[in-house]
Amino acid sequence: MTYEEAAAAIQKGKYRHYKGNEYEVLEIARHSETLEPMVVYRALYGEHGVWVRPAEMWDEIIEKDGRTFRRFEKCE
């Protein structure tokens, strides 16, 4: 996934992780060495930590218990 593809596919806003917690996407950034697109996001629970995850992983499809779904779903 290129930076441009990540920026188009992953919009800022609130998302729900498949395990149930909610997060806010703050920005799409680039890794300083590889230029890999990264999602900068904040937990909307607990200490509200800020995290970074590869955009490709953010947008991936998970299979669990015979079901498939996105790792993160945008909240309406």
User: What number is the mean pLDDT?
Assistant: 96
Percent range for β-strand residues: over 45%
Helix percentage range: 10-25%
CATH superfamily: DUF1653-like domain
H and E string: HEEEEHEEE
Which stretches are low in confidence, meaning pLDDT under 50 for 5 or more residues running? none
DSSP strand count = 7
* Shape, principal axes of CA atoms: globular
CATH architecture: Roll
Largest sheet: 5 strands, antiparallel
Radius of gyration: 12 Å
Protein name: DUF1653 domain-containing protein
Organism: Ruminococcus albus
Domain DUF1653: 13-74
Describe this structure in words.
- This protein has 76 residues and is mostly beta strands.
- It has a single domain, classed as Roll (SH3 type barrels).
- It has two helices and seven strands, in the order αββββαβββ.
- The strands form two sheets. It has a five-stranded antiparallel beta sheet with strand order 4-3-2-1-7. Strands 5-6 form a two-stranded antiparallel ribbon.
- The chain is globular, with a radius of gyration of 12 Å.
- The protein starts with a helix and ends with a strand.
- The mean pLDDT is 96.
